[in-house]
Amino acid sequence: MPSSRRHFFIALSALIALSLTSCNTAAPAPTPQPLRVIGFLSDFDVKDDAIGICKAVMDSVAPGVRVIDITHQVTPYDIAQGARFLAGSAPYFPKDAVFVGVVDPGVGSTRKPIIAKSKTGQFFVVPDNGLLTLIQDRDGIEAAREITNPDWMIGSKLSSTFHGRDIFSPAGAHLARGDNWTRAGPALDVAQLVRINIPTAALDDKGLHGDVIGTDGPYGNLILDIPQPVFAQLGYQLGDAVPVTLNGKAYSIPFHKSFSDVPTGKPLFYIDSRGRLSLAINLGNFAETYRINPPAQLFIPRKP
């Protein structure tokens, strides 16, 4: 074979081999997008299968999604309490977390199911009933959309009483897997989102007028709507006896750092883990002992 033809066939063989190698080399698979964490809050309790069903729906849309239960024991229909728990827990979640909040006494009515994005980057899938009031006040709401797209729901046959399963859970899972949230439905005017009136302490020349807004789990500590900086303006220091009128009755209760600073069975004022003034009994139940059921009012005069 002439040298020129031999060189031609060698070059052709090399080209074919290179082509085959290229064809057999698979394109790199796209890097899967990590799932966002979902924080789940409701007033469903855990006595039946509602929570399990909602989580199963989330997992069916976003397999393997991590769902952290904030609480499912919000007092039934208590939107203000749900708003407090939602705002209290959000800072401890990732900046891109998704929250599914279902405290929804208006389920099946004209109230809108919505997605709102806070200015910190977190998403909230909730009924538009005021549940976002404290989030809006502290973090701000960047944008919001009504959930109307059936593809973001469990199906076309929606229950009129279980939107936690049919709308909020699947929508939250779509967000968790990174779907484009603008496809969920039309944009809403953030300024028109429903707000509720959540009591806040009022300070005047005489003293501080506040409210008991809840109790601390099973312990019976009274949660007050009095932030520590507001209470500090009254002038009391650790160790002081603080006069207080609670539900019309007068008491003198010491202000201390923690429960063990007073004898067992004795009451105290203290600053709780959320930075609010609270009332407790060391190894006791303040709410039961003093027969206080929220809501209740209290007044603390300025220190003489």
What is the name of the CATH topology of the largest domain? Rossmann fold
The overall strand count is 15
State the separation between the terminal residues, measured CA to CA.
116 Å
What's the Cα radius of gyration? 28 Å
Order of helices and strands: HEHEHEEEHEHEEEEHEEEEHE
How much of the polypeptide forms β-strand, as a percent range?
A: 25-35%
**What is the name of the CATH superfamily of the largest domain?**
S-adenosyl-l-methionine hydroxide adenosyltransferase, N-terminal
CATH architectural arrangement of the largest domain:
3-Layer(aba) Sandwich
For the sheet with most strands, the description reads:
8 strands, antiparallel
Number of domains: 2
How many helices? The count is 7
Helix content: 10-25%
Spans of 5+ residues with little confidence (pLDDT < 50)? 22-26
CATH structural class of the largest domain: Alpha Beta
Structural class: alpha+beta
Overall 3D form: elongated
Average predicted confidence as pLDDT: 91
